[in-house]
Amino acid sequence: MKVGFVSLGCTKNLVVTEEVIGMFKQNGYEIVNDEKKAEIIVINTCGFIESAKQEAIDTIFEMAESKKHKCKYLIVIGCLVQRYKEELVKLIPEVDLFISIREYDKMWEKISKLIGEKSSNICKLDFENRVITTGESYAYLKIAEGCSNNCTYCAIPYIQGKYISRPKEEIIDEAKRLARKGIKELIVIAQDTTKYGIDIYGKPALAELLTELCKIEGVNWIRFLYAYPETITDELIQVVKKEDKICKYFDMPIQHISNKVLKRMNRKSDKESIEKVIAKIRKEIPNVILRTTLIVGFPGETEEDFDELYEFAKKTKFDKLGAFMYSKEDRNTSS
Q1: What phi and psi, each to the nearest 5 degrees, are found at residue 106?
Q2: For a disulfide at 207, which of 39, 221, 232, 235, Cβ 3.0-4.6 Å?
């Protein structure tokens, strides 16, 4: 049977989609890029903010139209399902199978049962069979799942669960496999890369991991997303400075600069520490590129708070900056 995929949301979601593609491919299915040719369509959804949820719903209904033609099975997975599975089952009967994140360990068992085939040995998501969809030159390398920061505006910990680092040996193994496939650039990703290792090694271990990745033959460029200011260590700055393979780039989501707002957001850094780490990075790496994201309109934000943020952004002159309106999110997860 021919299978088509739609991957929505973040790059971490894309990695999951690539692993699911690998699962189907290892079981003898043909992967197609045109949903009109697909007998099975798999949609990996995002459920982070309202606009992402709406995009996911629209995409599900759009793909459901394919069931009037060649598509026999419509499967929906991902964050939206994790948050609203019970509601989705009732509201969208056109979908044949919803699989939440907590059910990924039984994904192939559920799919096999739906399609009416005997389950094979490929029964779990596996980086060894992952199919890269980003071309021949670069790939994303996920080093952790979930998040334990519990920022008050964010639903990710309630969707994805607590922060769980992957063992360093497993990450290096995957990176070497990618290099053997011809991948030249690794983009290291997690909800918060700078917290990597704290849960399993008792300390931040991103600097150590990046140093090991730089030793892999065939890998020419490495960048990492996202670097939270409170865990950007002196060791990490020095590794970025000294290693030629690491791009001189920090993507640092600070969200705000007012201490009052940061406290209500349950952020772990304050204005003084943010300014200090930015100054340190720029001193040690003069040619560094800094990117950040900001949230405006957070509950309780005053004009004074906004003006403080505006003046800070104007003074700091980030190379790249994204500003987003606050979006109120519930913390519901139905499974």
Answers
A1: -115, 20
A2: 235
Render 205-267 in DSSP notation, one character per residue.
-HHHHHHHHHTSTT--EEEEE---GGG--HHHHHHHHH-TTB-SEEE---B---HHHHHHTT-
Cα–Cα distance, 156 to 147 (Å, whole number): 7
Amino acid (one-letter) located at 284 = E
Look at residue 217 in the predicted model and tell me its pLDDT.
97
CB contact at 8 A, 309 and 256: yes
Beta-ladder partners of 293: 322
Sign of the torsion angle spanned by Cα atoms 167, 285, 225, 228 = positive
What DSSP element (H or E) covers 140? strand 138-142
Q: Which of 205, 285, 189, 276 is nearest to 242 (CA)?
A: 285
The burial class, CB within 10 Å (0-12 / 13-18 / 19+), for 297 is: exposed
Supply the DSSP string of 170-205, one letter for each residue. Answer: HHHHHHHHHHHTT--EEEEE-SSGGGTTHHHHSS--
Between CA 235 and CA 181 the distance in angstroms is 31
Residue with tokens 């865990």: 231
| Angle, vertex CA 257, rays to CA 254 and CA 263, nearest 5 | 90
Rounded to whole angstroms, the Cα distance separating 270 from 68 reads 55
* Assessment of whether the complete model's pTM goes beyond 0.85: yes
pLDDT tens by residue, 268-289: 999 999 999 999 999 999 999 9
Give, to the nearest 10 degrees, the angle between helix 168-180 and helix 206-214: 30
Question: Residues 136-162: pLDDT tens digits?
Answer: 999 999 999 999 999 999 989 999 999
Q: What are phi and psi of 167, to 5 degrees?
A: -60, 140
Instruction: Round to whole Å and give the CA distance between 60 and 47.
Output: 13
